[in-house]
Specification:
This protein has 11 helices and 8 strands. With about 260 residues, the protein is α/β, with parallel strands linked by helices. Strands 1, 2, 3, 4, 5, 6, 7 and 8 form an 8-stranded mixed β-sheet that branches.
Length: about 260
């Protein structure tokens, strides 16, 4: 990761470490159940959760896997998560950069990364690293917000995410993720895209402290072109933005070296 981008991530996530443990978006049980269902982890599996944040995925996996390594770039975040999950004995916590993982090749049966890759300056390095640390026929499950395929909607989406959170780098399009998987011998086994409804006030306050900054994001939504308002299901009530929806991508890929 570029040093400046890394510093931004560490600042934002240190400041908001408890918000990510408590976030309704991040601890959604149906998501966590789907991860277990798609991966079917077993006690013999060694797993890695990259950019674990509040540790929700690591905790879910720890109930099924032998050992899970929970990594995050932000030590404060990881320390807080370790305290929060202190009853789970089979989770190891490692401060690590998603683009330079401190693990040997072919180390893990399962790798996960949820609602984080849009913070990574170099997605291709991230996916290279995932492919490297996975065992042959190992599985990687990713969930992340994705940009629409249409360029104007892609620009609109990434612009408001950056306004609301300066540690946001870029949400990729699904077509871009598919190309990265292909280039790293990761075969798609299952995927889906869904709309994720977001409560605007909670979402905007999670990273922005100043009312003026929050209002600027709200105005950007209110001035959105009709196509963007429709695509992102922007709803207003009494002149205030109440909610919107973004595209979320869930995918499982399997490593095949030959």
């Amino acid at each position: 990761m570029s040093d400046e981008a890394k510093r931004h991530v560490q600042e934002v996530f240190s400041k908001n470490k408890q918000a990510y443990v408590d976030s309704s978006t991040h601890k959604k049980q149906s998501d966590l159940d789907a991860i277990i269902e798609w991966l079917k982890p077993s006690p013999s599996d060694k797993a890695l959760d990259i950019a674990t944040g509040g540790g929700h995925v690591a905790k879910a996996l720890s109930l099924h896997c032998g050992t899970i390594f929970a990594t995050d770039l932000t030590k404060d975040m990881l320390q807080n998560t370790a305290r929060h999950l202190n009853s789970q004995q089979n989770i190891e916590y490692v401060v690590a950069d998603a683009e330079q993982l401190p693990f040997l090749d072919d180390s893990f049966d399962l790798v996960t990364c949820r609602i984080a890759p849009h913070h990574f300056p170099s997605p291709h390095h991230f996916i290279e690293e995932v492919g490297r640390v996975l065992k042959e026929r190992g599985k990687f499950l990713m969930i992340d917000n994705v940009a629409p395929e249409e360029d104007e909607l892609d620009k609109f989406y990434n612009r408001f995410e950056k306004m609301r959170d300066y540690s946001h780098v870029r949400a990729l399009k699904i077509s871009e993720w598919e190309k990265l998987f292909r280039n790293n011998r990761l075969t798609i086994k299952k995927q889906m895209i869904r709309k994720k409804a977001m409560p605007f006030p909670d979402w905007v306050r999670r990273t922005l402290d100043h009312e003026a900054d929050q209002k600027a994001v709200e105005e950007f939504f209110k001035q959105a072109p009709a196509e963007a308002k429709h695509h992102f299901s922007i709803t207003e009530e009494n002149g205030r933005v109440q909610s919107f929806a973004i595209d979320e991508y869930m995918v499982v890929v399997e490593k095949h070296s030959s």
